[in-house]
Amino acid sequence: MPGLLSHRALSSVLGLLGLVAAFVLTTAVPARAGESVFIEVTPNSVQAGSRVNLRAGCDANNNRQAQVTSDAFGRVTLRSNNGFLTGSVTVPGNKAPGDYPVNLDCANGNTASTMLTVLNMSQPSKGPATGGGGTAGGRGAGSLLLVGGLAAVAVVAGVSARRKPGGRV
């Protein structure tokens, strides 16, 4: 009887998996035209004067050029590159900070858009002031701690080497 019970359990599990597979296959939505029309700007937040890369898709029409326009940088022509449309452009250094729409116009009439944020930074930000980097050279507190730690390890190693195993049997 135990073999029959495990056979029934296996049969039930397989039946359930079959129902789940049938549900997934019948409810999957087929791809519609226009789903692969997109425009990407990398990075999508930049300081004025920085270069951005553009990557786009115009459905099955990626072998033809497309135009990208934005008040952030003007007009750019994207060209076919490894199955996508790509290009790059520099945001002018005097561009005011803000969010700018970036619009794609495909040769087949499809369109897409995204946003590019131009930041208001007069100069690149510096890292946090965390000290002089004591272990980077010189005789800072970091190098003293390192030497002291090594000396402590040497003392402990010397004491443990001198110990004689006494009361153990």
Write the layout of secondary structure elements.
Layout lengths: L1 H26 L9 E6 L2 E3 L3 E8 L7 E5 L3 E8 L2 E7 L7 E8 L5 E9 L21 H22 L7
Parallel strand pairs: 2-8
Antiparallel strand pairs: 1-3, 3-6, 4-5, 4-7, 5-6, 7-8
Describe this structure in words.
With 169 residues, the protein is of the alpha+beta class. Helix content is 28%, strand content 32%. The chain contains 2 helices and 8 strands, in the order αββββββββα. Strands 1-3-6-5-4-7-8-2 form an 8-stranded mixed beta sheet, with no helix packed on it. The radius of gyration is 33 Å and the shape is elongated. Residues 16-34 have low confidence and may be disordered.
Which key terms come to mind for this protein?
169 residues, 2 helices, eight-stranded mixed β-sheet, 32% strand, 8 strands, alpha+beta
